[in-house]
C-alpha cells in the first residue's frame, strides 16, 4: 500500500526539537522526504534526521538562522542542493513554517525592547513570507503550505503580546496567500497550538505544568505529536478542500 506522502518532499523550519521535530517525523512516516531545518543547533537537527532514518524514513538537514540577512538564500541553496542529491530535481511539495522566536516567559510588555520586536517579527512574520515567496518557484500545483500560528492570537496573554502580534501577521499570510494560490490548487492553512510540552525547562516544573494544564478542556498539556498529526493531515490529499483556515490544535483551550 502506497503511503499518503510517498514521493513528496517537505521542508519543516525549526524542526530540531518540539513540534517541528514531531512534524518532520510524522511527514517522513507518511512517506515524505523530510528536510530538517535548524537555526543554531546542528546536533539537535541531526538527531531528528537520525530518528527519521531509524524509523525507516528519509531526511537531510539544512541550517540557517532565520531573521538574519541572507538566511533565506542560505537555506534555499542547501535545500536545492539536497533535493538534487536525494531526488534528482528541485521540487518542494510541502512547506511548514514552524520556526519561531518569543519573548522570555513572564516578561511584562513594558520591558520588551525595540530590538526584541524586530527579532521576533523578523523570524515569525518576515521569514515565513520570504520563504513562501522563494518556495513558490519550487512548489508544484497541488502543493501544501502550513503555518504554525498560536492560540495566543485568540486569547490575551500580555507577556506574549509581541509574539501574538507576529503570529497574527502569519495568519494574514495564510489568508491572503490561500486566495492568491487557489488557482494552482495550493492550499495554505494555519495550525494554532496551545501549551505544548516541547521539553523546555518550564515544562519540567510540576507547579507550572499543573497551572498550564488547567487551560485545556482536557486538563493536560499537549504533546508535540498531537499538533504534528494535524499538520500531517493538512499535508495530505485528504485535506485538499481546506484552505485559508486556522485549525485549533489547543485541546480545547479556546472554549472559554
What does this structure look like?
The chain has 256 residues and is of the alpha/beta class. It is built from seven helices and seven strands. It has a seven-stranded parallel sheet, sandwiched between helices. The longest helix has 22 residues, at 114-135. The radius of gyration is 17 Å and the shape is globular. It comes from Streptomyces yaanensis. It is an enzyme of class 1 (oxidoreductase). One of its GO terms (molecular function) is oxidoreductase activity.
Structural topology:
Elements (H helix, E strand, L loop, with lengths): L8 E4 L5 H12 L3 E6 L3 H13 L3 E6 L7 H17 L6 E4 L16 H22 L8 E5 L12 H21 L5 E7 L12 H8 L10 H12 L10 E4 L7
Parallel strand pairs: 1-2, 1-4, 2-3, 4-5, 5-6, 6-7
Organism: Streptomyces yaanensis
Family: Belongs to the short-chain dehydrogenases/reductases (SDR) family.
EC number: 1.1.1.-
Give a quick set of tags describing it.
256 residues, alpha/beta, Rossmann fold, seven-stranded parallel beta sheet, 7 helices, globular, SDR_fam
Amino acid at each position: 500500500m502506497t503511503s499518503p506522502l510517498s514521493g513528496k518532499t517537505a521542508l519543516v523550519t525549526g524542526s530540531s526539537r518540539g513540534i517541528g521535530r514531531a512534524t518532520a517525523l510524522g511527514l517522513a512516516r507518511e512517506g515524505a522526504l523530510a528536510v530538517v531545518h535548524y537555526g543554531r543547533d546542528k546536533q539537535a537537527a541531526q538527531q531528528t534526521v537520525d530518528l527519521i532514518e531509524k524509523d525507516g524514513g528519509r531526511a537531510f538537514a539544512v541550517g540557517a538562522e532565520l531573521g538574519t540577512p541572507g538566511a533565506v538564500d542560505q537555506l534555499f541553496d542547501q535545500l536545492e542542493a539536497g533535493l538534487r542529491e536525494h531526488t534528482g530535481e528541485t521540487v518542494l511539495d510541502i512547506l511548514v513554517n514552524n520556526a519561531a522566536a518569543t519573548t522570555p516567559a513572564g516578561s511584562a510588555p513594558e520591558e520588551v525592547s525595540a530590538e526584541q520586536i524586530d527579532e521576533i517579527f523578523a523570524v515569525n512574520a518576515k521569514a515565513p513570507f520570504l520563504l513562501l515567496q522563494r518556495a513558490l518557484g519550487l512548489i508544484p500545483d497541488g502543493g501544501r503550505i502550513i503555518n504554525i500560528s498560536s492560540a495566543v492570537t485568540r486569547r490575551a496573554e500580555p507577556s506574549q503580546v509581541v509574539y501574538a502580534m507576529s503570529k497574527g501577521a502569519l495568519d494574514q499570510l495564510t489568508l491572503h496567500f490561500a486566495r492568491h494560490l487557489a488557482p494552482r490548487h495550493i492550499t495554505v492553512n494555519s495550525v494554532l497550538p496551545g501549551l505544548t510540552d516541547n521539553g523546555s525547562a518550564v515544562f519540567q516544573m510540576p507547579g507550572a505544568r499543573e497551572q498550564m494544564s488547567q487551560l485545556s478542556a482536557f486538563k493536560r498539556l499537549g504533546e508535540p505529536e498531537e499538533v504534528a498529526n494535524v499538520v500531517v493531515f493538512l499535508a495530505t490529499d485528504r485535506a485538499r478542500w481546506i484552505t485559508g483556515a486556522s485549525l485549533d490544535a489547543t485541546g480545547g483551550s479556546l472554549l472559554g
